[in-house]
Amino acid sequence: MVQRVTAMILALAVLVHLVTIIGAVRGGLSAAEILGRTHGNGAWFAFYVVFALSAGLHGAIGLRNIAAETIGLRGRGADLAWLAIGLVTAGFGIRAAYGLFA
Question: pTM, whole model, 2 decimals?
Answer without folding.
Answer: 0.81
